[in-house]
Amino acid sequence: CLMQPGYILVGSSGGIFGLIGICVADIVLNWKILFLVFRNYDGSSAGFVVRFCAMFWLGFDLMLNSAVGFTPYVDNFAHLGGLTYGFFISLTVLQRLPIAFFGKGQDLCFKIRIGTLRVIGAVLAVTLLFTTGTLLSQ
Description:
Elements: H1 12-29, H2 47-68, H3 76-93, H4 108-137
């Protein structure tokens, strides 16, 4: 049940984990400007608290759905694969929110960091895709 070698299992839960991976990648890419408009009563930024809550609930959702994976005929590796592919492919594809919209500028270091994240995401996604294809073809 936990590991079923020789079987290829498919289902919607791997896709749902892929969507969760996309959410995590979106939060990673837009970390500094995500929830920038939220303010405390005294006018200070509440962005850290809101970011923490978003990551906490995504982590809680991942743990809860992974716990469901210990039931019979549910493949946790499909969940992990969906999460991994969703994260790495979305690092490549997702567009960052325009910082100028929020009144902030972009510097060269910022552009280099985002370009590096995109290249790393693309390389890891393609590597995982070929590795999975090679293992399944054997």
